[in-house]
């Protein structure tokens, strides 16, 4: 069960009203900035996760031990939007552990042939060795679009902001506001896949993946270090806004440059030059028989 230590419901309520009114004043695009506790539900490992107040910030701790891990999902699902969350990852020897932040439709109801997903997976490592940020995009049940990055800071000592911007033209992944990946909509007419119709929920998990996660699976989880914790807070959802006069984002005309404003191409190129360690589009050996996926040659 979710714990809510030492915070009376009236002060929680007060804080929530304050946060809501600040959000309304601060932004015309209506950022939904409620408390994690109100916004998400625990989807896995109820007894391995808890909410607590860190100062005045409502924080969710996900826990992993030998028995299992834990996870959450937002209560609401969205078709397009910007999703930001602050995460502090498993410290010290995190080898074998994987913490995630991702968008996915309600899994059980959707046949795999329609499975869409936008993934950030933080692959743990031995103490002192760097984490890998592994990203992927699934559309209609097809993934295999991996790009990996080295973070340029220690993600275990502080909270950092990880974001997914999803609009009809681009999926952009950002770290502390810097775009590191863009997956663009090449157009169904040209045979290129993009998630355009089903609502997805932002979610997070902490689980054991020591078969593959760390140094290709050579380094296993050290259970003497368990339990492992990753911390999530400040989940922000900003609904997608179309250009003036357009009813909703899906109606934005394809030739409209409106959504290109959200992509800083120069910053993206620089971040990839500096921090990308794997790109499926550059893996000629892997695709030597079938050829590179279409989107790799699109832009
Ligand atoms: C990580 O190691 C440091 C130094 O040994 C220790 O002080 C700290 O409590 C450890 N953190 C966790 C989460 O185990
Ligand atoms: C862990 O550290 C090793 C050595 O620095 C590095 O090669 C590897 O990419 C790191 N990350 C993972 C997830 O194995």
From TrEMBL:
Glycans are attached at residue 125. The active site is at 117 (nucleophile), 121 (proton donor). It is found in: Secreted, Cell wall; Secreted, Extracellular space, Apoplast. It is an enzyme of class 2 (transferase). Pfam families: Glyco_hydro_16, XET_C. Residues 1-34 form the signal peptide. Contains at least one intrachain disulfide bond essential for its enzymatic activity. GO terms for molecular function: hydrolase activity, hydrolyzing O-glycosyl compounds; xyloglucan:xyloglucosyl transferase activity. GO terms for cellular component: apoplast. Its EC number is 2.4.1.207. InterPro entries: Beta-glucanase-like, Beta-glucanase/XTH, ConA-like_dom_sf, GH16_AS, XET_C, XTH. GO terms for biological process: cell wall biogenesis; cell wall organization; xyloglucan metabolic process. SUPFAM superfamilies: Concanavalin A-like lectins/glucanases. Catalyzes xyloglucan endohydrolysis (XEH) and/or endotransglycosylation (XET). Cleaves and religates xyloglucan polymers, an essential constituent of the primary cell wall, and thereby participates in cell wall construction of growing tissues. Belongs to the glycosyl hydrolase 16 family. This is Xyloglucan endotransglucosylase/hydrolase.
